[in-house]
Amino acid sequence: MPIHSTGARGDRRAARRAQGRGGRAAEADLSVRERLGALRNVPPLFRLVWQTSPPLFAAGLVLRLVRALVPVSMLYVGKLIVDEVVRVAGAEPALGGVAAWGGALEPLAWLLAAELGLAVLSELLGRAVALSDSLLGDLFTNETSVRLMRHAAALDLAHFEDADFYDHLERARRQTTGRMVLLGQILGQVQDSITVASLAVGLAAYAPGLLFLLVVALVPAFLGEAHFNAQSYSLAYSWTPERRELDYLRYVGASDETAKEVKVFGLNGYLAERYRELADAYYLANRTLAVRRASWGAALSAVGSLGYYGAYAFIVYRTAAGAFSIGDLTFLAGSFGRMRGLLEGMLQAFSTVSGQALYLADLFSFFEIEPRVVSAPDAPPVPEPIREGFTFEDVGFRYPGSDHWAVRHLSFTLRAGEALALVGENGAGKTTLVKLLARLYDPDEGRILLDGRDLREYDLDSLRSAVGVIFQDFVRYHLTASENIAVGRIAERSDHARIETAAERSLADAVIESLPGGYAQVLGRRFSEGTELSGGQWQKVALGRAYMRDAQLLILDEPTAALDARAEYEVFERFKDLTEGKTAVLISHRFSTVRMADRILVLEAGEVEEVGTHEELLAAGGRYAELFELQAQGYR
Ligand SMILES: Nc1ncnc2c1ncn2[C@@H]1O[C@H](COP(=O)(O)OP(=O)(O)OP(=O)(O)O)[C@@H](O)[C@H]1O
User: Fold this and answer.
1) Alpha carbon of 18 to ligand 1 centroid (Å)
2) Quick one: 402 and 288 in the same domain?
3) Residue (of 232, 229, 243, 251) closest to 174 by Cα position
4) Which of 273, 291, 323 is the C-terminal boundary of a domain?
5) Which atom of ligand 1 sits closest to the CA of residue 425?
6) Is the shortest distance between the CB of 340 and ligand 1 below 6 Å?
7) Final residue of a structural domain among 174, 206, 238
8) Domain extent for 58
9) Domain check: are 445 and 574 in the same one?
10) Using one digit for the tens of pLDDT, what is the confidence trace for 284-328?
11) Where is this region: Disordered (predicted)?
12) What's the complex ipTM?
């Protein structure tokens, strides 16, 4: 049964787009001046491409310049050929006989050879330009993608939790490919304008007024193109969220990570239908614009043709009246024909370029997004060893865009060298507290001190290096087992002894040794040589990252949730080792884990409710005692 959601969701989407048109898309509904203003994005593009490969860029430019002069040369040689043919055909062959006749043909042979030479040269230059463009295009795509990844990585976690940011990232990502087409068009423009100038010099000598006529006749087509380019941009812009949703649906519908659940819940039909519904709506919006564009384009270019044929008729009549030679007629007709094609192409390309330059703004403005969580200039490194620990002073934090405090009025000290467990119900704020400790976010209220100094005053890289967090939703890298542990401290990825020791401590060694490829075994199912692990096996591997990291502050968010009872017991046998001389934070819902900690902090709705040792909290008979009792009952 098809599942349609044209009801509430469809309405919401329509409302969003309408709002988009009134708001964001209105930004995209630009005046000609603003559109031309977008051309300021072109020089930075040139700079980027030049930086990608100066030799290839220069080669493309020089080849185009040479190629630009070929058409006028060919037309001129063509005119000489016709004039020569007319002259030779009109000459009396009688006196000199065959030899003289042959001699008379010699200049013609040279001219023909020159024409052929030019044709071959043009072809060769064309291919060389295409080759240098395509090589440069590939390099440019690689280079920009790497830059995009680097920049995205430097941004705040908050950015990644914001849908508008994803829309922006998506638009920027789409700009990493295909921008060379734009560059090719711009360089093609340069080439064409040189050709046009060279033809114009020739034509101006014969009929300057006609040149003017040609240019004027093409203006309506140009304006039409410019208008529709802006409309296309508006459309693409206002549909970014839906296009992202399409990509997402395609991913959910066919990916190794979702296949299992999609199958057992029979979601395929639902996902495909939802995809189709959205894709059809986008198609329809695009089609309407494409049809309008094609109809207007046809009408407006007819005006251009009118101008051209007016000029052509004029030349034909002037030749018939004896003002031009037959050779002149060939040259002029050829030049006008060529000129018309070139001008039309140039005007269109110009409007495409200015249209494309709008898209470029998406790429450049993405690079302009600045992270907010940054190091102060000349920030000192984190002390080593940490002496006092971390002190939360009335810390409050709201996730961006949320008016609900995830944590508030948090005041406590995480003492250097202690293992502190965080306990609390779902949504109590445990993970948020950890994110603040690792400076993935900065508090909105209060401050966090490290050895008496605000965390924000320390060098960020040094802080991140001093902190190791294994999140509950740790990443299952579809890389080798060895790399999966090495990500804990990627700079040490070649230190196999360190990786093996880490694996041994987290109990991942037995898992890895049983794999066909051992440490070199690719994990996960995404690649053909990959092997999938069980949830607990993955967790052991992820835990290996904590040992690999060997950080001053170690944070484990639900480190044993997926482990069986024996593995959990063994992990905690070694836990003391792991945290020896270190500060540790442990989040867990299992009280067998929690009681390993030196102290326990109980969070409730983002605030500290109780702090103490296991025994103290049990004796206090508060929430901890209640939760502990609830869990203990389950085992009786
Ligand atoms: N990225 C986010 N954006 C907005 N709100 C969030 C985000 N992450 C968490 N929250 C909200 O912040 C509050 C605290 O969440 P947090 O993840 O810290 O809870 P937790 O104690 O770790 O829960 P759990 O035991 O379920 O892991 C919750 O109300 C949650 O809805």
Assistant:
1) 32
2) no
3) 243
4) 323
5) 25
6) no
7) 206
8) 29-91+101-206
9) yes
10) 989 999 999 889 988 988 887 888 888 888 888 888 898 888 888
11) 1-26
12) 0.95
Answer whether 162 contacts ligand 1 (Cβ < 6 A). no
Q: For residue 521, tell me if it sits in a domain.
A: no
Do 260 and 245 fall into the same domain?
Answer: yes
| Residue 109 sits in the same domain as residue 68 | yes
Q: Ligand 1 center to residue 535 CA distance, Å?
A: 23
Does one domain contain both 579 and 443?
Answer: yes
Residue 347, domain member (yes or no)? no
402 CA to centre of ligand 1 in angstroms: 11
Average pLDDT along the chain: 83
Q: What token pair was written down for 499? A: 């990786």
Rounded distance from Cα 467 to ligand 1 centre (Å):
21
Nearest protein CA to atom 4 of ligand 1, as residue: 399
Q: Phi and psi for 574 in degrees, rounded to 5?
A: -90, -5
Determine which residue's CA is closest to atom 26 belonging to ligand 1. 426
Residues 6+ apart with CB under 8 A from 522: 478, 479, 480, 529, 530, 531
Residue 381 lies in a domain: no
Highest mean pLDDT among 255-259, 344-348, 495-499: 495-499
410 CB less than 6 Å from ligand 1? no
Q: 403 CA distance to ligand 1 centroid (A)?
A: 13
Quick one: pLDDT at residue 28? 43
Number of domains in the chain: 3
Say yes or no: 201 and 236 in one domain: no
CA 111 to chain centre: 53
For residues 268 and 91, the model is more confident at 268
pLDDT of residue 98: 56
Cα of 280 vs centre of ligand 1, distance in Å, is: 36
CATH number of domain containing 595: 3.40.50.300
Q: Do 319 and 429 belong to one domain?
A: no
555 and 627 both lie in a single domain: yes
Residue 482 in any domain: the answer is no
Confirm or reject: Cβ of 255 under 6 Å from ligand 1: no
- Ligand 1 near 399 CB (within 6 A): yes
First to last CA, the chain: 47
Q: Determine the Cα–Cα distance for residues 432 and 603; give it in Å rounded to an integer.
A: 11
SS3 (DSSP) at 435 = helix
Is the Cβ atom of 559 under 6 angstroms away from ligand 1? no
Average pLDDT value for residue range 14-36: 48
Is the CB of 471 inside a 6 Å radius of any atom of ligand 1?
no
Q: Is the CB of 428 under 6 A from ligand 1?
A: yes
Whole-structure pTM value = 0.70
Rounded CA separation 216/201 (Å): 18
Residue 100 pLDDT exceeds 80:
no
Q: What is the 3-state secondary structure (H, E, C) of 574-607?
A: HHHHHHCCCEEEEECCCHHHHCCCCEEEEEECCE
Q: Is residue 136 a contact partner of residue 52, using CB atoms and an 8 Å limit? A: yes
| Per-residue DSSP letter, 608 | E
